[in-house]
Amino acid sequence: VSHLSENSALVIQLLPNLKTLTLWLASKAKQLEKEFCSVGGFHKLEILIIAFHVLEEWTEIEEGALPSLKYLQLHKCLKLRMLLEDLQFVATLKQLQILPLLDEHKERLKPYGGEENYKIRHIPQTPGRGYSRVDGR
After folding, report:
1. Between the N and C ends of the chain, which has fewer C-beta atoms within 10 Å?
2. Is residue 99 assigned to a domain?
3. 135 part of a folded domain
4. In the chain, what's the furthest Cα-to-Cα distance?
């Protein structure tokens, strides 16, 4: 997807058979809001890769959005201050990758004492716990 507008995001999330979505420099937005992931949106999406160099904040996703998501990669989101609070409610998520993993993110996500670890503790493969291939092998 190239140069994603707000209206485009609303349409894309309603594609009934979309299983993989890569948003590579698709937006100059500094913030993703709940409209990006509405209830009923991305119903079959299993793999989501976001590479927004200017992204500073992903504010929220609506409860019930991304019901099939298994893999989330945040690629070169170097300005991202904190992980999405609602990530803790995406029960289907099996793997989270943050590339590159900055020291400040690593510190906040560490299993013991990391202030953001509660958001990812339900995810089997996260920074610091090792990775396998996207398909789980």
Report:
1. C
2. yes
3. no
4. 41
27/118 Cα distance (integer angstroms): 29
Tokens of 33: 């809001």
129 occurs within a structural domain: no
Residues 33-85 pLDDT 10s: 777 777 888 899 999 999 988 888 888 888 888 999 999 999 988 888 889 89
Q: Is residue 126 part of a domain?
A: no
Asked if 18 and 49 count as a contact pair (C-beta separation under 8 A), the reply is: no
Specify the number of domains making up the chain.
1
User: The dihedral of CA 105, 83, 109, 52: what is its sign?
Assistant: negative
Judge whether 83 and 52 are in contact, CB under 8 Å: no
Domain that residue 61 falls in: 6-119
Does pLDDT of 4 surpass 80?
no
Residues 53 and 113: their CA atoms lie apart, in Å, by 28
Q: How far, in Å, CA of 47 to CA of 73, rounded?
A: 8
Of 83, 118, 114, 111, nearest to 97 by C-alpha is 83
Q: Which residue has the tokens 């510190």?
A: 107
